Amino acid sequence: MTEQFEYYKTIREQYVARGVGNGNLHVADTASGATIKDIEGNTFIDFAGAIGTLNVGHTHPEITKHLKEQLDKFIHPGFNVIMYESYLKLAQKLAEITPGNFAKKSILLNSGAEAVENAVKIARKYTGRQAVVSFVRGFHGRTNLTMSMTSKVRPYKYGFGPFAPEVYQAPYPNVSEKPNTLSNAEYVDQVIQKLHDFFIETVDPSEVACIVMEPVQGEGGFIIPDRKFVQAVKAICESNGIVFVADEIQTGFARTGKTFAIEHFDVEPDLMTVSKSLAAGFPLSGVVGKAEIVDSANPGELGGTYAGNPLACEAALKVIEIIEKEQLNEKAETLGHNIEQFLQELTHTYDSIGPIRRLGAMVAMEIINPETGEPDKVLTSKIVKTANEHGLLLLSAGIKGNVIRFLAPLVITDDELNTGLKILQDAFAKVASTQPS
Ligand SMILES: Cc1ncc(COP(=O)(O)O)c(C=O)c1O
């Protein structure tokens, strides 16, 4: 390691909160597409995309050029103080591109957690009820309410109580955990039955304001539910006056091969939370949904000083254009397919690769102990660390920490992809044992 690396590492250790995690301790200098260069001239292929924030890639030239021009106009008049066009146009665009042929409205905010908080506020105001249902293995953020809705105890909740009241976690299927004695269909039916039981055993549906569901669980390990399950959740909402909130913060904006993952399940949410890849790396989030629900909050009851920053809104408008122009939904499907093929090949050499899951370019593989079939968090960390040390930004996920997830920009070139996959393969070769021949 160079002197410069050691210098920044020392500053990081001395002045930056320990509670902030770092997957990689190099210092970024420039980035474009799916490549980041650090200040020492090292190159990294980016399979993390700032945790799913960069579906259009780093510094997309159209966005960068446009924002440089915008910067000269104004930085932040504050939408609560005076309106600006980009906020208005983005609210209109979100109404157009989200599923559901009904009148829609939006509020724009900053972070994913803030969007989820606001979706819950709106649902409570609309229904006059207090209870919130999220799902086991779900992730919705780190504020008090969203942390309470989140499932994984360490590192998200441990020592941070007391948690928000009236938050309940319902079962969510994971076919990778299905008992061998059941078919997929039987298993899904069983989880749907458990969901119905949950509303008898845990909370009465008449007291529930909203059910907040990730259409594919992100931090939970890219768990793809059966369509029948998602539709069962929606049906419970409809028959009990519960607001269905799709949390599309990680899944939205072409990641799964459709603009929003919920479209795979033929369900129209009442409200949707959006963020991450919405604005190509700018802090921006929103709640979009049925106008009558969104409008249950009175003027002044929702908002925030920086909410709906104009540069972020301009970036988002460009992102939505680029998704269509560059056919990112189609690209997501091809990219996901290519990564999946590669991982399937790798299973012939490494018996520590468990289930591989994919919806569009949301791809994940589990790392297991081949003898016991149990999740292997230690080996997962070793693979991820080795990849990071050799030029690949890679993330883990999963309630048991044994999932490697792929969130590469959808604009990644074949060269970048192949380089990244080769680094991953080399990381396996360094730390994982091969199949017995
Ligand atoms: C599904 C989902 N909801 C909410 C959040 C929270 O977003 P933020 O970290 O911007 O608060 C995340 C972040 O990973 C997420 O994946």
Short structural description:
Pathway: Amino-acid degradation; 4-aminobutanoate degradation. The chain has 437 residues and is of the alpha/beta class.
Tell me the layout of helices and strands.
Blueprint: H1 3-15, E1 28-32, E2 35-38, E3 43-46, H2 49-52, H3 61-71, H4 85-97, E4 104-109, H5 112-127, E5 131-135, H6 144-149, E6 167-170, H7 184-201, E7 208-213, H8 227-240, E8 243-247, E9 271-274, E10 285-290, H9 291-294, H10 310-325, H11 328-347, E11 353-359, E12 362-367, H12 377-389, E13 392-393, E14 395-397, E15 403-406, H13 414-431
Parallel strand pairs: 3-13, 5-6, 5-7, 7-8, 8-9
Antiparallel strand pairs: 1-2, 2-3, 4-10, 9-10, 11-12, 12-15, 14-15
Helix pairs in contact: 3-10, 4-10, 7-8, 12-13
Pyridoxal-5'-phosphate (PLP) is lined by residues 51, 111-113, 116, 139-141, 214, 218-219, 247, 249-250, 275.
